[in-house]
Amino acid sequence: MANDYVFNDCLPVAPLKIAALESCRDLAEKVNSHIVNFRKNDTEELLRRKADLHYRGYDVDSYLLHLKCPRFGSGEAKGVINESVRGADVFAMVDITNYSLTYSLSGMVNHMSPDDHFQDLKRIIAASATTAHRVNIIMPFLYEGRQHKRSKRESLDCALALQELCAMGVSNIITFDAHDPRVQNAIPLCGFDNFLSTYQFIKALFKHDTSLKIDKDSFMVISPDEGAMHRAVYLANNLSVDMGMFYKRRDYSQVVDGRNPIVAHEFLGTSVEGKTVLIVDDMISSGESILDTARALKERKAGKVILCCTFGLFTNGLEKFDDYYAKGYLDYVITTNLNYRPANLFQRPWYLEADMSKYLAAIINSFNHDASINQALSPTTKLQNLVKKYQATKDGYEYFQTIG
Question: What is the rounded CA–CA span in Å between residue 194 and residue 187?
Answer without folding.
Answer: 14
